[in-house]
Amino acid sequence: MTTDIEGEEEIDFIMTTQFMFNDACIDKRPTERDLDEIYRIANTHSLTSAFARNLYYKATGEHIIAPLPLIDDVDPRSMEGRYNRNMTVEVILGPNPLSEQLNYKLLNLERSCRLTIYNNLGKEMQSHLIEPDSVEGKVDITFSQPGMYHCVIRDVADDKLLHSQVLTKF
After folding, report:
1. How far apart are CA 70 and CA 72, in angstroms?
2. Close Cβ partners of 109 (under 8 Å, ≥ 6 residues apart)
3. What is the SS3 assignment for 53?
4. What phi and psi, each to the nearest 5 degrees, are found at residue 44?
5. CATH class entry, domain 78-169
6. What is the DSSP string of 102-125?
7. What pLDDT is attached to residue 144?
8. CA 14 – CA 16 distance, rounded (Å)
9. Domain ranges (residues) in the chain
10. Cα separation of 131 and 111, whole Å?
11. In what order do the strands lie in the sheet with 90-94?
12. Distance (Å, rounded) from C-alpha 167 to C-alpha 123?
């Protein structure tokens, strides 16, 4: 049985997995050549680079801080369609941690939006429609369980994200 290996990242994954197996299962220490390969993998931005940094540290005691990828590589159009860039809304939510009510203030709101609160499992706990003529108000918190919650405000017309914030309830 043969396996086609495509690309350097797959080879790095296989090598890192082998080094990890050797270290954990058969207590085989890496050679100088192995350490050179582990060092090279640790300085990449692959899925296995963190494992390689760990292996390198375990073998040598030296930390490797991988260089950050260049910001210029980010395509600003990759977020297009997720956020509503036409409507810039300033959102103020409080108090955080939550009490019996969540106060909101939405500045520059031009269209209706929906404020939805989700629990940490992604279950919708409650939702509230906010009209442009009621940009300041309160939402009664109907759930009593303490925990972390995620508040999301979306434009009703096109369902694009206007704001996202983590809330805590004690």
Report:
1. 5
2. 87, 89, 130, 132, 135
3. helix
4. -100, 180
5. mainly beta
6. EEEEEET--S-EEEEEEETTS-EE
7. 79
8. 6
9. 8-71, 78-169
10. 7
11. 90-94, 101-107, 136-140
12. 14
Residue range 61-92, pLDDT digits in tens = 888 876 665 545 445 444 444 544 556 788 88
- The region, left, alpha or beta by phi > 0 then psi within -120 to 50, assigned to residue 122 is left
Tens-digit pLDDT profile for residues 119-131: 888 889 999 999 9
E strand or H helix at 24: helix 8-25
For residue 97, the SS3 value is coil
Q: Please give the share of the chain, as a percent, with pLDDT higher than 70.
A: 84
Q: What are phi and psi of 11, to 5 degrees?
A: -65, -45
Distance, CA of 54 to CA of 74 (rounded, Å): 27
Reply yes or no: is the peptide bond before residue 146 cis, omega within 30 of 0. no
